[in-house]
């Protein structure tokens, strides 16, 4: 069997001396890691808008129409409607190439934009680092699987399988993070609070009919009677003491008169 350390060493990347020797042979200028072409940058764009509308129904329809033309969709859509105002809380996912177009289309509408917050995060460095680490882990995984096929003892098999399990978990984690970053880069997020304030309208409480008021009076009277009876039941020990006291007092006065 080929030694474990020897196979693992084969999976390691070349040393800096080896890279330097190749650089000397190659007359092309060195490439710095932080020099990334603009077109390959990974930018996550997101933002939020607060919009005051005069007709929230029409405003919502206009946003719906714009989203259809830009291949966007609602990730969440919540409606609240009370006596003071009606409002939509919207989270929009839109292809990043159309992000600025969507904001411009909303701003050109008849509604008033009260608040605007736009952010752009450069995740190029993290993306490149994850990609490099993922390729390295995949290379290690191939080596360990080759080594596993040559293992002859239970100890070596268990040791290699454990290393494979750890590497596979790390690969899945890196792939998940890369997938998330790609999704965030490809589709931007825009949170929109669209609301319309309502005019205050006084609504007096209507009086009940005589029959309803009579029913309520009877019910209240009956509740009062029940409450009084329950009160008497709860104080029955004191009533007994009072009766006994009155009896003893009268008995005492009767004896003294004799």
Secondary structure class reads alpha+beta
Overall average pLDDT: 81
Gross morphology: flat
Helix percent reads: 55-70%
In CATH's first tier, which class of the domain at 38-123 and 188-197 applies? Alpha Beta
Note the run of SSEs as H and E.
HHEHEEHEHHEHH
**What is the C-alpha radius of gyration, as a whole number of Å?**
40 Å
Number of helical elements: 8
* CA(first)-CA(last) distance: 127 Å
Give the low-confidence spans. Answer: 1-38
Largest sheet: 5 strands, mixed
Strand element count: 5
Strand content: 15-25%
CATH topology of the domain at 38-123 and 188-197: Alpha-Beta Plaits
Strand order of the largest sheet: 2-3-5-1-4
Please explain how this structure is put together:
With 258 residues, this protein is α+β, with helices and mostly antiparallel strands. It has a domain at 38-123 and 188-197: 2-Layer Sandwich (Alpha-Beta Plaits), CATH 3.30.70. Helices cover 57% and strands 20% of the residues. It is built from eight helices and five strands. It has helices at residues 4-11, 16-25, 56-69, 99-107, 124-150, 154-186, 210-234, 236-257, and strands at residues 43-52, 73-81, 85-95, 112-122, 187-197. A five-stranded mixed sheet has the order 2-3-5-1-4. A hairpin with a 3-residue loop joins strand 2 (73-81) and strand 3 (85-95). Helix 1 packs antiparallel against helix 5 (124-150) and helix 5 packs antiparallel against helix 6 (154-186). The radius of gyration is 40 Å and the shape is flat. Residues 157-184 form a coiled coil. Keywords: Coiled coil, Membrane, Transmembrane, Transmembrane helix. InterPro entries: DUF4349.
